[in-house]
Design brief:
Blueprint lengths: L4 E10 L2 E11 L4 E5 L6 H9 L6 E6 L2 E2 L10 E4 L11 H12 L6 H10 L15 H13 L5 E5 L7 H18 L2 E6 L2 H7 L2 E6 L2 E6 L1 H6 L4 H6 L6 E8 L7 E4 L2 E4 L6 H4 L8 E6 L4 E3 L9 E13 L4 E6 L10 H4 L14 H17 L24 E5 L10 E7 L3 E4 L5 E3 L11
Helix pairs in contact: 2-4
Bound molecules: adenosine-5'-triphosphate.
GO molecular function: ATP binding
InterPro entries: AAA+_ATPase, ABC_transporter-like_ATP-bd, ABC_transporter-like_CS, ABC_transpr_MalK-like, ABC_transpr_MalK/UgpC-like, Mo/tungstate-bd_C_term_dom, P-loop_NTPase, Transp-assoc_OB_typ2
Organism: Streptomyces polyasparticus
Length: about 450
Amino acid sequence: MSRAIELREVSKRYGDTYAVRRVSLTVEPGEFLVLLGPSGCGKSTVLRMIAGLEDITEGELLLGGEPASDVLPRERDIAMVFQSFALYPSMTTRENIAFPLRLRDPSTDHDDEVRTTARMLAIEDLLERLPAQMSGGERQRVAMGRAISRRPSVFLLDEPLSSLDAKLRGHLRAEIARIVAELGVTTVYVTHDQAEAMSLGDRVAVMRDGVLQQASPPRELYARPANVFVAAFVGTPRINLLEGVVHAPLDGPMALDLGRQRLCLPQPLTTDHQLLRIQQGRPVIVGLRPEAVRIGPPSQARPGEAAIGGIVEHVEYLGHEVLVHLNTGSRRAVVPDLESSRPAVDAGPARPARRPWIDRALHRVNSVVVSRSSAPGPAQQPAAVPPERRTTAAGDLVLRSGPEHRVRVGGHVPLLVDLERLYVFDHTGLRICPAPDRMPALHT
Ligand SMILES: Nc1ncnc2c1ncn2[C@@H]1O[C@H](COP(=O)(O)OP(=O)(O)OP(=O)(O)O)[C@@H](O)[C@H]1O
């Protein structure tokens, strides 16, 4: 039987510091929920509170609809697997898997249950081995076997794959998805690896600094991130985030100023774009996923695409695709918490400050583009990101392209931006385009 897990306004405080703040979240019976976030955001603490290994400072936990905050860990019918495979070194696989069963019922022979579990995990040929005689991946399978052998109603996994190499991680990830689906048990899985989270979870709950940011199915998380942090944490390469200013004159087309270039919003305006009008003159963060920008001249623009230009700074050939790093003369918006935990994707080796040829080339691009769209004056420069956090790294935009595109470092390329895939976040980081499902009240 699997049970629902419900956290109601749950907080955890260590001394004066909150590790988890007012998290409310329900995991439905049989659901696979992934807790995702950077190191130190409180994921493991949430898991440990569900398991009863940490007391809840404020709020309430319910298991299967029953208050459980004060229930002893061993009475919660929960199994947990940690990053480090907690196996008894002197016990064989068979004995390790049988151990929790023997604890519950010492008088019975549990061989059938052990065999069923071993078959499910494809470790039947390891039953007589000791942990020291197995690889990391095999040991982690045995640890899972031990956790699931007594068929818990809730299964908690804390970064179970993080100490394994990439190939094994990919393989075991698929195995975990299969096993959990087969068991049909309510599962909470902690990771800081967004690809792992997106591929495993029925829903992914993103945390930052102890606070739950959004809990949604993976597709929704990617397509409709609630805020700039979620947008940036999910997706590889990371979404391009640029400082911008909304330009919405009463008598002309609306646009987003990106420093030296401007994205003109296509007419007639979509409802989402119309709603940006109230941000006139305000600094915003413009988000463009790498697949929302393509190389192409203005003459090839499809409806809904806007033309800009950029200088190629770095090209990553990945075989099936090419990532092109460009300098468009915009400023990258920096999202605190992300920069240290997840480095900008494959931006290549650290480079010195902008090279002279880039300045010359940018001057050429900008003199063309700016003449089309009167550059914003200093008063219009966005202040969304404090100057001390602004990055001086060259290259502000990454686009994903087919391997057939051959671009030259230092070359100027025309770009087409799909404005149907445009994201805009306000100065607090909340998504305002596409408009949020629940619009905030207007303050007059
Ligand atoms: N026993 C403790 N005493 C004091 N602070 C703690 C304790 N345990 C955790 N913390 C703090 O609580 C915060 C959340 O920790 P937690 O382990 O839940 O984060 P996490 O998201 O799981 O990180 P990681 O991915 O690195 O494991 C961190 O700032 C951590 O330093």
